[in-house]
Specification:
- The protein is α/β, with parallel strands linked by helices and 672 residues long.
- The chain has three domains: 247 residues, Aldolase class I (TIM Barrel); 128 residues, Rossmann fold (3-Layer(aba) Sandwich), CATH 3.40.50.720; 119 residues, FAD/NAD(P)-binding domain.
- Helix content is 31%, strand content 18%.
- It is built from 22 helices and 27 strands.
- It has an eight-stranded parallel β-barrel with strand order 3-4-5-8-9-10-11-12, surrounded by seven helices. The protein has a five-stranded parallel beta sheet with strand order 15-14-13-16-27, covered by helices on one side.
- Strand 10, helix 8 and strand 11 form a beta-alpha-beta unit.
- Helix 1 runs parallel beside helix 2, helix 2 crosses helix 3 and helix 7 crosses helix 8.
- It is globular, with a radius of gyration of 26 Å.
- It binds NADP nicotinamide-adenine-dinucleotide phosphate and iron/sulfur cluster.
- NADP nicotinamide-adenine-dinucleotide phosphate binds next to helix 18.
- Its cofactor is [4Fe-4S] cluster; FMN.
- Its EC number is 1.3.1.34.
- In the N-terminal section; belongs to the NADH:flavin oxidoreductase/NADH oxidase family.
């Protein structure tokens, strides 16, 4: 059994003790926009505290109206707003945890008309032009932040985190990229760090010495004219002198064009930037970004990179992360796979966050844990994401489950997804399900294509059909030509593909298949490859930590085609689609919209576009034209008297993804 000695070591600030070195990082979940927000938030944090996390950082609360991220973002500026905070603090303290409120002033990232900044320079990712802050505005903002800290103390929080990274207001003042002022708050380094330092001093004065004061510093800006490593280290030391108890680290600005938390970032890939801060201060430092396993966290602490590790998304994926690490049961941790699909992508489209691998996250009130009244015998047909998840959720409710899978291994479409560069984290989902199914004593029959007749006789009470999808075979002449292959054959490695490729379709699977065909190696598994590809200066000598990206090697020639006139790749995830598109663009992949397919023949793919007919002379035509439901069994079970339910792709193939499959599994399991 692995013991995570460093992760599990308590920490004593004198006025505050933390039970371990695991921190739940701040996340703006938008849970507060759902019904019953107070109860929901309290339950969300209570569950994570029961899971033994050492310290929780809340999502960001603005100190005033100008500082809100968007119109309906939460603000804490008045005693009338304390009720929700008191409920949250009570829930956490009742369970023996500690909680800190994050104060976030969005600066020029604020998506509303009151947006302010060091100058009136608009952020590339925001359509609102900021108003330049006057010295009086700055003084008022310092006081507003101090006032929020005072209110946080009154509500019962154990401290506050001042958000000073990711390109938000305080970060904007520190950086030459955004701060071109020539007054007392701009110009030289000393003047640019003045606003953050005055903020820290005011918060300390307002909230007292025995109140945890965390500052989140940008460890590497990843934007032009950002700080060098030496300047960041100097700033960190000045924050300590100003009275900060602990430094948390942020990586990159929201406008930077380098991935910072997506799955293509290697685990603990930013350790070099965190270490730079750790070496400059004697107060504890928190490492963050792409720390999703106890092993990764333990290694960072053992190597002296940081004193704490912050995990935000991993705590959505598994609220019991810390408890399982303590018990030496890391194999049972439901790991965050850094897909961003059900968390950030939902937040960016103004929905509330949950988690692909744990749809209970943020919905704890809707899906209470508990045993069912009567134990039922349920057959689950299909061991993909939907089938495995249903088997686990239903077994947790006390039902006796038999899971039939026709293939020799569990996983279904996840076995294809895991082969896509940057998606190897799906291995963790498969590992989790296998471990959990074994622990719950679910009977798993692999390589077993069960028939309706067998199911009728087996004495089950219900059958859940989770037989998934099959690739769509579009009606194009020549589809049986030897040049034609389907994405499942390519991703599974069953089909060898030549140098010149046409891909029919431009959906997520087509982009993934193109990325697969272009990849020399998976950069998420190689920090060296990652930094070279994206142009990151790991020595931190250059401003913002930027370097010239390595030139792309000539690889396959790929054309991706679609019939519609929509923007190719327009449906990719908001927070990850740009990474995929940028990678393919750099590799010279061509996309064609508005095509009509004619035929596939020895010469290649014949199509017309804008009234011109031509032939793409390719070696292979790979079909990624969506999927159709696969369900031969439901009809055969009609009239059997068994309850039959369908989930995932077997129920509805269009726009299927693992998030929907797993959520449907949870919903159905709750009904048994
Ligand atoms: P999809 O997103 O529905 O895309 C299907 C593609 O096939 C479209 O480009 C469509 O373009 C084309 N197509 C559909 N019917 C066709 C026909 N009869 N003949 C020729 N072309 C046809 O399906 P998918 O790519 O398989 O993805 C499935 C689901 O997984 C989606 O919900 C997707 O969002 C999700 N996914 C997402 C990602 C990601 O975000 N990275 C990765 C993998 C999967 P035209 O109809 O215009 O020709
Ligand atoms: Fe992690 Fe994906 Fe869940 Fe977000 S949705 S917490 S990235 S597994």
């Amino acid at each position: 059994m692995h013991t995570y000695r460093n992760l599990l070591e308590p920490y004593d600030f004198g006025f505050l003790k933390l039970r371990n070195r695991m921190v739940m990082g701040a996340m703006h979940t938008r849970i507060e926009t759902l019904d019953q927000p107070v109860q929901r938030l309290a339950e969300f944090f209570r569950e994570r505290t029961r899971g033994e996390i050492g310290l929780i950082l809340t999502g960001g609360f603005a100190p005033d109206l100008a500082g809100r991220m968007e119109e309906d973002a939460p603000v804490l500026d008045s005693p009338d707003q304390l009720a929700v905070h008191q409920a949250i603090c009570r829930a956490v303290h009742e369970e023996g945890g500690r909680i800190v409120l994050q104060i976030l002033h969005a600066g020029r990232y604020a998506r509303h008309a009151l947006c302010v900044g060091p100058t009136d320079q608009r952020a590339s990712i925001n359509r609102y032009v900021p108003r330049t802050m006057s010295a009086a505005d700055i003084a008022a903002t310092v006081q507003a932040i101090a006032n929020t800290a005072r209110l946080a103390r009154e509500a019962g929080y154990d401290g506050v985190e001042i958000m000073g990274s990711e390109g938000y207001l305080l970060n904007e003042f520190v950086s030459l990229r955004t701060n071109t002022r020539d007054d007392a708050y701009g110009g030289g380094f000393e003047r640019r760090i003045r606003f953050p330092l005055e903020t820290v001093q005011a918060v300390r004065a307002a909230a007292g010495r025995d109140f945890l004061l965390v500052y989140r510093i940008s460890a590497i800006d990843l934007v032009e004219d950002g700080l060098t490593g030496a300047e960041t280290a100097q700033f960190a030391a000045r924050l300590q002198q100003a009275g900060v108890d602990m430094l948390n680290t942020g990586i990159g600005w929201h406008e930077s064009t380098i991935p910072t938390i997506a799955a293509s970032v290697p685990r603990a890939g930013w350790a070099f930037a965190v270490r730079n801060i750790k070496q400059a201060v004697s107060i504890p430092v928190i490492a963050s970004n792409r720390i999703s396993t106890p092993q990764t966290g333990e290694q960072l602490l053992a190597d002296g990179v940081a004193d704490f590790v912050s995990m935000a998304r991993p705590l959505l994926a598994d609220p019991e992360f810390a408890a399982k690490a303590r018990q030496g049961r890391a194999d049972l941790i439901n790991r965050c796979i850094a897909c961003n699909q059900a968390c950030l992508d939902r937040i960016f489209t103004e929905r509330s966050a949950s988690c692909l691998v744990n749809p209970r996250a943020g919905r704890e009130l809707d899906y209470p844990r508990g045993r069912a009244g009567a134990r039922q015998r349920i057959a689950v047909i299909g061991g993909g994401a939907a089938g495995m998840a249903f088997a686990v959720y239903a077994a947790e409710r006390g039902h006796a489950i038999t899971l039939y899978e026709a293939e020799a291994e569990l996983g279904g479409q996840l076995n294809l997804a895991r082969r896509v560069p940057g998606k190897s984290e799906f291995d963790e989902t498969l590992r989790y399900f296998r471990a959990r199914l074994a622990e719950l004593e679910v009977r798993v029959e692999l390589g077993r294509r069960v028939t309706a007749a067998e199911l009728r006789q087996a004495g089950h009470d219900a059958v859940v059909v989770a037989t998934g999808v099959a690739p769509r075979r579009p009606d194009i002449e020549g589809l049986d030509h030897a040049k034609v292959g389907f994405y499942d054959e390519v991703l599974s490695g069953r089909r060898k593909v030549g140098q010149r490729v046409a891909i029919i379709g431009t959906g997520g699977v087509a982009f993934d298949t193109a990325a697969f065909l272009l990849a020399e190696a998976d950069e998420s598994l190689s920090p060296e490859l990652f930094t070279r590809h994206w142009g990151i200066d790991a020595t931190l000598r250059s401003p913002g930590g930027l370097a010239a990206p390595a030139p792309q090697k000539a690889g396959r020639s790929i054309h991706m085609l679609q019939r519609s006139l929509d923007k190719p790749g327009g449906h990719l995830g908001k927070s990850t689609g740009w990474i995929l598109k940028s990678r393919l663009r750099r590799a010279g992949v061509q996309t064609l919209a508005g095509v009509t397919y004619h035929r596939i023949c020895d010469a290649g793919l014949e199509y017309s576009c804008d009234g011109v007919t031509q032939v793409l002379p390719v070696d292979d035509v790979i079909v990624c034209a969506g999927q159709l439901s696969r369900d031969e069994i439901s009809l055969a079970l009609a009239g059997s008297g068994l309850r039959v339910a369908r989930i995932g792709g077997a129920r509805h193939a269009v726009e299927l993804d693992a998030a929907r499959a797993i959520e449907e599994a949870l919903q159905l399991a709750q009904s048994f």
